[in-house]
Amino acid sequence: MKEIIIAPSFLSANFADLKKEIARCELAKIEWIHYDVMDYDFVPNLTFGSKILKDIVNSSKFKIDIHFMIKVKTKKFEDFFVEYIKCNPTMMTMHIESMTREETQKFYDLCKSNKIMFSLAVSPKTDIHVLDEWLEKLDNILIMSVEPGFGGQTFIPEVLKKVEYLASLKKTNQLNYIIEIDGGINEHTSKKAANAGVEMMVAGSYLFESENFTEKVEALKHD
Ligand code: DX5
Ligand code: ZN
């Protein structure tokens, strides 16, 4: 079995000491980091623009996974993403609930024309079948295991049914998407997620609020 990818969410990092947070990730041999963009509209919280990401990218070699929890308000949909794309993300995730069908198509085209992995997220209450028509195109599916908006919430176990469904569909239809989970991941919930078929896990408070970052990363990967 392939090793689970652990992507620390910088939402829970100490912003007064980002160098130390980057160093902790490097020491734990982290390959991917997760960057949560929120707009106080799609979700009741506000986070980062692209400047902090640019600074992180300029002082590290991580692959970047940008999780947009936003409703795009720019006249031209694509304009919103320009500065983030300059940060060279490996993957960009938008919530399917925040876009029209036409915007989802634009988001797909934007990712592909910039050689960025195309990823869609689904909130806990969203029916997984909203993704049906995108399954063959998706490089990644982000299953939210908490309501999007805040770190430190409790894992919602019911979402594992979606993971199991996507994992079996992936196998039978030879689909290519990665199955990612985000929210409430710790040493207990990570095992349940891995058993259900999760391949990539985001963890924020569990990692950054700990003194033993590397040990916690290892605890998420192994039984
Ligand atoms: C929440 C964010 C998550 C958050 C996870 O909406 O998408 O990435 O940082 O934090 P934890 O791991 O603390 O639940
Ligand atoms: Zn996230």
For the sheet with most strands, the description reads: 8 strands, parallel
Count of separate structural domains: 1
- The CATH homologous superfamily corresponds to Aldolase class I
**Molecular shape:** globular
The CATH architecture: Alpha-Beta Barrel
Helix content: 25-40%
InterPro entries: Aldolase_TIM, Ribul_P_3_epim-like, RibuloseP-bd_barrel
Pfam families: Ribul_P_3_epim (PF00834)
Keywords: Carbohydrate metabolism, Iron, Isomerase, Manganese, Metal-binding, Zinc
GO molecular function, one term: metal ion binding
Question: Secondary-structure blueprint of this entry?
Answer:
Elements: E1 5-8, H1 18-27, E2 32-38, H2 50-58, E3 63-69, H3 82-85, E4 91-95, H4 101-113, E5 117-122, E6 140-144, H5 160-173, E7 178-182, H6 189-196, E8 200-203, H7 205-208, H8 213-221
Parallel strand pairs: 1-8, 2-3, 3-4, 4-5, 5-6, 6-7, 7-8
The structure holds D-xylitol-5-phosphate and zinc ion.
Entry summary:
The chain has 223 residues and is of the alpha/beta class. 32% of the residues lie in helices and 19% in strands.
